[in-house]
Amino acid sequence: MFYQPGKTDHGLPHNPFKALITPRPIGWISSVNPKGEANLAPFSYFNAVADTPPMIMYSSTGTKRDGSAKDTLSNIRATGEFIHHIVGRNMTDAMNISSGDYPNGEDEFAKAGLEKVPGELVAAPRVKTADAAMECRLWKIIELPGENNHMVIGEVIGIHISESILVNGMVDPLTYEPMARLGYRDYSAVEKRFSLNRPGQK
Do 123 and 130 meet the contact criterion of CB atoms below 8 Å apart? Predict the structure, then answer.
């Protein structure tokens, strides 16, 4: 099949675009509004974009049900800071609860039964039990085509890593099974791996 997004109908029950871009790591972002009220929300348009300095991005699409901007985007615009958390398999339910469309100022940490601890370098709180977290300073918000599509790029200025996920001095994803978003309502967890050498590598 072939179709042109926005021009021709794909004829399928659901839009296949996001189902083709998989697996997608989950950006579990905490932030605070100018009043100091905490927010925590997952985003499936997320990834690393550079390593020196370390940079990550997530994209915010659409609005809340009442038509207002999503809290995470508004908070980062106001404060210039946020924290990204790795979502291990044991955090799946809490991550899902935090995805709800709650009123501005309502604490998703409390909703999901998560303990928060202060960030070291940013005002946003951190999920205490997350296996890893990256404190970030906003670099740029890029307005994308369409309605309410924004790419948020942050520089990672501090990294928290639980000793429990380090094996022989290396982060071992099999110890925490990071979650990934697939298409539709589907998710996956990293349960196995294999290694490849580039041509010429030993």
Answer: no
Kindly report whether the global pTM for this prediction surpasses the value 0.85. Answer: yes
- Among 149, 143, 141, 121, residue whose Cα is nearest residue 133: 121
For residue 192, count other CB atoms closer than 10 A to its CB. Answer: 6
What single-letter DSSP state applies at residue 201?
-
Number of helical H runs and strand E runs in the chain: 4, 14
**Residue 154 to residues 12, 36, 58, 175, Cα–Cα distance (Å):** 36, 20, 9, 27
Residues 124-145 pLDDT 10s: 999 999 999 999 999 999 999 9
Cα-atom radius of gyration of the chain, to the nearest Å?
18
Query: Are 56 and 48 within 8 A, CB to CB?
Result: yes
**Exposed, middle or buried by CB within 10 Å (0-12, 13-18, 19+), for 138?**
middle
